[in-house]
Design a protein that fits this description.
The chain is built from two helices and no strands. The protein has 33 residues and is mostly helical. Helices cover 82% and strands 0% of the residues.
Length: 33
């Protein structure tokens, strides 16, 4: 559940244009699924 939550937060953050670090994090989370 924690990973899914982080994925959702990363997705929202990426939409807001926070930075590439968030995009990298979302990719890392997706790699687990």
């Amino acid at each position: 559940m924690a990973l899914i939550g982080l994925g959702l937060l990363a997705g929202c953050a990426t939409v807001d244009g926070v930075g590439q670090d968030i995009s990298g994090g979302s990719r890392w989370v997706q790699s687990w699924f």
